[in-house]
Amino acid sequence: MQIDINIIYYFEKSIFVIDPTLKINETTQSQIHRHSVLIEFMDIHCHARVYSFQIKKCNNPTCPYYKPIRLPSQKFYDLSFLPDLIPSQNIY
Prior knowledge:
By secondary structure, the chain is mainly alpha-helical. It is 37% helix and 7% strand. The chain is built from four helices and two strands. A two-stranded antiparallel ribbon has the order 1-2. The relative contact order is 0.10.
């Protein structure tokens, strides 16, 4: 699978906007948990699971990362995180 280097660059750049004290080599849970600003952001905006990581924009004007939504309001509020995966019952 080819990874677009630009996507990684912009993702890293976005994380540093949230927490500029984070180091690029801090990748374990124990290292990340030392960054309370990042953890707070993740608690509010993210959904982390075994096989997925999702980020959802909020519509709270008091949020320090707030940017106005561009979708029609009803479509934005109808969006939700993807459901958790359910293992197949087939044993084939």
